[in-house]
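User: These chains co-purify. Model them together.
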Amino acid sequence: MHTDARNIENHTLIEGDICIIGAGAAGISIALEWINTPYRVILLEGGGFEYEDRMQALYRGKTTGQRYYPLESARLHYFGGTTGHWAGFCSPLDEIDFEKRDWVPHSGWPIQRSDLDTFYARAQKNLDLGPYEYSFPEYQKEDKSLVPLPFDEEAVFNKMWQFSPPSRFGAKYRDTILKAPNIHLYTYANVCDIGANENVSAIKEVIVKNFAGKEHTVRAKYFISACCAIQNARLLLASNRQAPKGLGNDNDLVGRFFMEHLEIKSAEIWFPDPDPLKLYLLDFGKTKYRAELGITAKKQEEHRILNGTASFTPLEIARTQPAFIDIWTKDQKQREKNMSDFSKTEDQFKSTNRFRNFQLFTRVEQAPNPDSRITLDTEKDELGMPRAMLHWELTPLEKRSIRTIYEIIGKQAGLSQKGRVRLLEYLWDEDDHSWPEFTGGGWHHMGTTRMGTNPKQSVVNADCKVHSIDNLYIAGSSCYVTAGAPNPTLTLVALSLRLSDHLKKRISAVS
Amino acid sequence: MQRRVFVKLSAYTAAVLTFPLAQGCRSGQMDTTSQPIFFSHLVDAKTIAAAGKAYLAAHPGEKDADKLRTMLLPKGQSSDAGAIGRSLVASIASDFKTGKTVTVNGWVLAITEARQCALYYLLQS
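Assistant: Joint model of the two components:
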């Protein structure tokens, strides 16, 4: 079922068993799980079914610290969310990503990778991926032409990725959601406030608003905030009528530990002979899987570094490409032109696969950092909600990790007599902790409502429930404790499916 | 794999010994010891010299051609160019295996080939 919240009587009371706030990858994945159950699910989407500048402007916000993309362009605010423009890169987190690492402050999830494996397998289907298989030898069994670089697997391994078409959740799941008798989607229903009971131990209702000037109330037994890492934090912080510091924020943790993936050109690898590198190169839209060079857990521990991977782009192509941070402008038309120009440079290498030299591009986790955070601005958006502000702050560990990753790969290149690696100049001086202008992120927002067992160190528990609030859950990458190297979508869908299963057990036990 | 690498390196050795490092070299001054075989197949002489200069800036105590030769070649090393080339290739492989690497001008090199670059720089300057 679907209702446009602009077209119903003002101050309508909407009621259900479950209220999901946000219809992106997390929210839609959860909603799909509840189809044909005896429960009434309210799915709230702030936007409509298409991109709108006015709606997108609700995500505008200031940024300080490390240079960052315009916030209103980093997430999409309509049905399907950011799957409307994601690139489809998928790979699970590694086991080490969940572990407490004494060299990574604030690391350690309350769950293990094995707790997510069954959910990863299910998430693969939501994202139109292949079987849940990320072990390189299994791929090589199918395709003997996938030749790995002859590196010591104890040091550098082939971290496999699968590529979603990419699935656009808005188009793919719209009819399924609309036809589901027990799922009621409300579009143009921006949640601007969450109301709790008297002692703020449970959520009573949420208030939704839209540009038609309508305001409605939604009541449910359970609420799931699935708005993305910045908006989840913003919503909790802005819901401060009853809890002055914001909901779930008794310990001043909501919004802190904002994490991105640093995605940055870092080194070059030079070979004496051309190498097609079939296993490692990407032909966007066609490649179903590829490898990046990953650093083994053993080496990460030995060098006390963060987890990261390296991908390859032919050097003569890479040198013509501007950095993502310069491409991704505020103006959508300019951004589209920049992206189109970028794609043209990539098309050049499709005509040949005989390159000798390649740029090595890093994708590395950001160390959890309480000072890297989302806060509220005094400025409000058009619906009267305080805007989010991002202070993105990196630490010396990220830069040392990148440098070390390429020293490890460089040694493997030398040891195997395959080639030589050259670090880019910004990595030469070990005492220089500054970042070059072209430093950017992957548009991946994580960690603002981190998971943990201790309410003094985390916002949600291992089931993604806000510690101090009995019926409020958070879905998505805001629950991440650490970021790992892979893009977050596969893991956030897996985590959402896990949350959904937990809630099903809970609600059926109560029923 | 080992054999393939050996054959390839032998080919490089032969090529380098036949065609000493290129542009900017003063004839007569260059020798096998100052020619990082594998690296010279990737980059030009200018890059090798720059790496050598950077290495010496970080290791000023080695800024002496004779000293570098002593460090690069084992005692009793045959003066045969082919034998020297093979010995240096073996040293480079050993350096990478034992972690004796150094980063100069961003290049992750075996200490042996970094010293060869340094020697090359001293001889051509």
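Chain A has 14 helices and 21 strands.
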